[in-house]
Write a structure and sequence with these properties.
Blueprint lengths: L3 E7 L12 H14 L5 E5 L2 E7 L3 H10 L4
Antiparallel strand pairs: 1-3, 2-3
C-alpha cells in the first residue's frame, strides 16, 4: 500500500494567470504540470482550495515543481 499526501492550496494564493481562470481549470493545469514531470498527482477544486493528492514518495519532486510555479 502506498502512503498518500494531500497538499491544499488556497484559491486566494493562486498567482496570475491561474487565479484568473476558473478553479476547475486551475486544478487541471496544476495536475497536468505535475503529471508532465512524472508525478502521479490528482488535483481537484474543493470549494475553498485546490486539493492535490499524490504518493508520499513523490512529495519532494512535487514540492519542487509547485515551488517553481510559485504555488508554494
Amino acid at each position: 500500500m502506498t502512503a498518500i499526501t494531500t497538499i491544499r492550496i488556497d484559491h486566494a494564493a493562486l498567482p496570475d494567470p491561474l487565479n484568473l481562470k476558473g478553479s476547475d481549470a486551475a486544478a487541471r493545469m496544476i495536475e497536468d504540470a505535475l503529471r508532465n514531470e512524472g508525478i502521479a498527482a490528482e488535483a481537484s477544486d474543493v470549494i475553498s482550495h485546490i486539493k492535490i493528492e499524490l504518493p508520499t514518495t513523490q512529495l519532494g519532486a512535487a514540492s519542487a515543481m509547485l515551488a517553481s510555479l510559485q504555488l508554494i
